[in-house]
UniProtKB/TrEMBL annotation:
Entry protein name: Type IV secretion system protein
Compartments reported by the entry: Membrane
UniProt source species: Photobacterium damsela subsp. piscicida (Pasteurella piscicida)
Region described as Disordered: spans on this chain: 194-214
GO biological process, one term: protein secretion by the type IV secretion system
NADP among keywords: no
Bilayer-crossing regions: 30-52, 59-80, 95-116, 128-147
Domain of life, per lineage: Bacteria
A GO cellular component annotation in the UniProt record: membrane
Topological relation to the membrane, as annotated: Multi-pass membrane protein
UniProt keyword Transmembrane helix present: yes
Amino acid sequence: MYETLDNLLAKGVNQAAYCFEQAGWTPATWTWLFCAFVVMASIGTLTVRAGLIVIGTKFLLSVLLVIGPLFFIAACFPVTRRFIDSWLNKVLENILVQLFGITVVVMATKIIGNFIKVNDITKAIDANPAGIAVQVAIVSGILLYVIQQIPNLAGALSGSFASAMLKISMPKLNPMNAQHSAIAERASWAQQQQNQLSHGGAVKGSNPKHDLSQDLKDRIAAHNMKHRH
C-alpha cells in the first residue's frame, strides 16, 4: 500500500519536474509552468488525502485498541456503561475505513497511474501538454471525491451496528422477586375483596338504593372470591 502511494507521488513529481525543465522566461514557455503546478497540485493532493485515510485511521485504531480495557471496566458500572457504546462505534468505524480505504485507494492509484502512463507529458510530441495536465487534474478530482466519502460511509454503517450489539437482554438477578411480587398482589386483591364483604352489609336507616347497590357489589365480590380460588 505504501509503495503504491510512493509510486504515484513519484510519477507526479517526475511529470512536474519535466514541465519545470521546459519552462523559461519567454511567454511561450509559461504553459509549462501552468502544467507543472496543475500536475503537482492534483497528484500531491490525491496522495496526501489517500495517505491520511490509510495511515491516519490505522494509527487511531491502534490507540483505540490500546485504551479499550478502560471502556470494558467502565461497562461494569451502570453510570459509565454507555461509554463502551461510543468506543465500539469508533472501533468499527475505523475498521471499515481501513477496509474501504485500502480498496478504494488502491483502485484510485491504479487508475491515475495508468492514465499518466498513457498520457505522459514527457513523451507527448503532438499532444497539448496543458490539455494533458487538465485531464490529470479532472481525474484526480473525481478520485479525491470518492476517497473523501469513505469516512461518511464507514460512520453510517458502524453507528447502528454498534448500538445493536449492546441491546442484549440481561437475566434477572433474583428471579424469586417476581414470585414474591405475584403472591403479594394476590394477597392484596383477596384482602380487598374480604374487606368489601365484611364492611359491605346494609346499614340500618340507609337509603334503599344505596343498600341495593351495596348488595350487588357484595354479590360480585363473593363471585370473584369463589372463582379466584
